[in-house]
Amino acid sequence: MRRSPTVWRAASLLRWARTKRGRSEASRPAFVICDVHLPDGSGLDLLREVRSLDPDVYVIMITAYDDMDTTVAAIKRGAFDYIHKPFEPQELEIVVNKARENRRLTQAVSRLQAERSAPVRANALVGKSKPMLEVYKTIGVVSASKTTVLVTGESGTGKELIARAIHYNSGRKDGAFVSINCGALPGDLLESELFGHMKGSFTGASSNKKGLFEVAAQGTIFLDEIGELPPQAQIRMLRVLQYKELERVGGTHPVSVDIRLIAATNRNLEQMVKEKQFREDLWFRLNVFPIRIPSLRERRQDIPALVHHFVKRKSS
């Protein structure tokens, strides 16, 4: 099918932007706002071109005609939203902001999925200082048990490495190690990611979905920045720790889960409990086996070994 000059020029511009992608992400468009009726063609043709060239671009269609067939066709071809003329500038702003938020959440979930699928290294801990030797001994003790662990320490001290070491030295090492940063997602999306959801429980829930607790069955789930957990999610978490079961968002039946929980934070949870920012009963159930990771200030003698480790890793 022969494309109109307008559609051809727009597609060519998008191809050019994609060739620049490796040099500058800013050159790649995030949104396309297009009228259904172009001077020499159809906006639906442009929509098809854009979606075929870059499915991650959000296309917002505009039309003066209240035509159900055209609306349905646009949505089926992948339009994010459809605005009828005449409209106020604020209406377009709302739709663009909604698309921007949707894009942000999608990218956040993609990053989390990439982190979960990335190769893991069980022996990445570096250091022979006395504080680190104490940490190693603690890992050895707690790895032999099934108890919940709370890892504390400043940002960048390697809390996830500790969690991975515990997992890969435990009886669950053949199971999954699932990691998520509780501060990386907003409350509703975080609950869906952790506990799963049922079809129709919220807009966009087109099918039942297992949460990370179910994905981590027979393995270990690592909840980083547990202090960022919203109140409603804290209640759900408490049930998991108390009864080894959960309810998916929108669900009515409990789902049994067999996981080992390791949580981490750089915040003072005890102080948060006093300030009513964190549930006391949840804190008690998380703080069964605490491990504090020393900062680099407390183990300066490990600096040469760390420098050698990072230089070797970057040069390999």
> What is the strand content?
5-15%
Order of helices and strands: HEEEHEHEHHEHEHHEHEEEHHEH
Low-confidence stretches: 117-122
Number of helices: 12
Strand line-up in the sheet with most strands:
7-8-11-6-12
Report the mean per-residue pLDDT as an integer: 81
Description:
By secondary structure, this protein is α/β, with parallel strands linked by helices. Helices cover 44% and strands 15% of the residues. Helix 1 runs parallel beside helix 2. The longest helix is centred in the N-terminal third of the chain and has 29 residues, at 89-117. The N and C termini lie far apart (50 Å). Residues 117-122 have low confidence and may be disordered.
List the helices and strands and how they pair.
Elements: H1 5-19, E1 31-35, E2 37-38, E3 41-42, H2 43-53, E4 58-63, H3 68-76, E5 81-84, H4 89-117, H5 130-143, E6 149-152, H6 159-168, E7 177-181, H7 187-195, H8 212-215, E8 220-224, H9 231-243, E9 245-246, E10 255-256, E11 260-265, H10 269-274, H11 280-286, E12 289-292, H12 303-315
Parallel strand pairs: 1-4, 4-5, 6-11, 6-12, 7-8, 8-11
Antiparallel strand pairs: 2-3, 9-10
Helix pairs in contact: 1-2, 5-6, 9-11
